[in-house]
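Lecture notes, continued. The same structure-token format from the folding unit now serves as the input rather than the output. Read the line below as a description of shape only.
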């Protein structure tokens, strides 16, 4: 009888809660969408004087944002390591000076000649020009 091995690589990974979105990502989306929904709800309350609009926007806005945000993140996060976008967003906010960076970050080359590339493009794309150059050079 063959023993089953545990999936130890999944122990330290934050579990997905909605369509592959983690709770950290859901918290970020919920806070931003609640603030925006509150502003829209207050503006509509001031214009119309109908207070249930405030409750509808403050409850419905974050719920819809979480659902559609999770569907968007599901397509964007495909083939990326766990926590990539949380770390990339953190580094982006630290470059803007909004928060303090928790990571060692610099824009220089390492001694081995590699650079940090935080683009959101797939890592192994080759253009037709680079394939022609490779075939021409022996």
């Amino acid at each position: 009888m063959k023993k089953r091995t545990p999936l130890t690589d999944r122990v330290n990974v934050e579990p997905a809660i909605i369509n592959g979105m983690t709770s950290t990502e859901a918290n970020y989306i919920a806070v931003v969408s609640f603030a925006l929904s509150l502003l829209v709800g207050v503006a509509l309350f001031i214009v119309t004087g109908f207070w249930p609009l405030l409750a509808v926007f403050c409850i419905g806005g974050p719920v819809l944002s979480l659902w559609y945000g999770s569907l968007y993140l599901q397509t964007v996060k495909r083939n990326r390591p766990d926590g990539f976008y949380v770390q990339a967003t953190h580094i982006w906010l630290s470059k803007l000076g909004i928060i303090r960076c928790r990571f060692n970050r610099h824009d220089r080359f390492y001694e081995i000649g590699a650079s940090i590339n935080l683009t959101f493009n797939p890592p192994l794309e080759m253009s037709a020009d680079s394939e022609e150059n490779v075939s021409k050079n022996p």
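Point for the exam: The first helix runs from residue 23 to 48.
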